[in-house]
Design goal:
The protein is built from four helices and no strands. With 106 residues, the protein is mainly α. It has one domain. Helix 2 crosses helix 3. The chain is elongated, with a radius of gyration of 21 Å. The model has no long low-confidence stretch (mean pLDDT 77).
């Protein structure tokens, strides 16, 4: 990497520094997706606790790995459209943000 490339990289990086306290433009969408994935993970984990999964080994290790599997299922379900939780939450967050903006203007 030559000096011109290094300087250009520094300029781009410094231009992308976030302002303290400023939210990312897609923060409501990201938060809604993450919440849905977390909620679905909890649901899948509870369902898996009720199902006999055979001779998986039992014990503490089984519980730990079962949660990782539930987390993978939850994230995958959320990425493929989920259960509609993210869409509802996104709408509520947008309405809240809009009302806060209107209050601040008043």
């Amino acid at each position: 990497m030559d000096i011109k490339t290094s300087m250009a990289a520094l300029q781009v990086t410094s231009a992308q520094i976030a302002e303290p306290g400023a939210a990312a433009p897609d923060a409501p969408n990201s938060a809604a997706r993450e919440f849905e994935a977390m909620f679905l993970t909890q649901m899948v984990d509870e369902m898996m606790k009720q199902v006999d999964i055979g001779d998986f080994g039992g014990g503490q290790a089984e519980e730990t790995w079962r949660y990782f599997l539930a987390e993978a299922f939850g994230r995958e379900i959320a990425e493929q459209g989920g259960a509609g939780i993210a869409a509802s939450l996104r709408g509520a967050l947008e309405a809240y943000t809009e009302s806060r903006t209107m209050e601040q203007r008043s």
